[in-house]
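Input chain follows. Return structure tokens only.
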Amino acid sequence: MIEQRLLRLLTRALREYRLIDDGDHVLVALSGGKDSLCLLELLAQRRQIYPPRFQLSAVHIRMENVAYETDTTYLEDFCRQLDVPLHILTTRFDESPEKPPCFLCSWNRRKQIFNLAQELGCSKIALGHHQDDILHTALMNLTFQGRFGSMPVLLRMKKMPVSIIRPLCLCHEADILSYAEAHHYQPQKKRCPYDTDTHRTSMRNIYNQLEQLNPELRYSLWHALERENKLIEL
């Protein structure tokens, strides 16, 4: 069963990478996409299993000057059913000819999330990136930046007592998609117009081709990241 497999992999990730400690207050960045919805639902289930004991909150950021739309009523109902408090924040960014909109939007979202995390006394911020995201990013960094690394599973911030965690790091995107379809997750009303990362799309295609050559590619790349200590930044 997909739900049991996802919960098992999430629990394994929490244990192996020590992502959540007893007494943590975890803030989930809830975009409204399938990954963050799945993450919140699985963490809400895991919260009922001890140890560790942890508190759970969610935050959704609305960006005024980006033409996308999410049904916040759906997100509120979703969180209410899970007994998770949801904070909805609205912000905007000043456009700049020197920096792309995606960078400015992402930077301002993170700023709002970090501010709320500190305001609520959260020790962890959970993001919905799954294993496919991490592996594709590793290939992108190798191809375009000439370095081997990716999004860390655990990143401890140096300037504030908050860590970023990615509890879905062992979960496959295909399983999350199947889970989302089975649970009838409501899609975003209108996707972000800038959500067309051609490099990431190209890398996804290249990854799929490489996986045809080596069906064990996923595990080879993951073990390489582990050996080079690229999954945890303390």
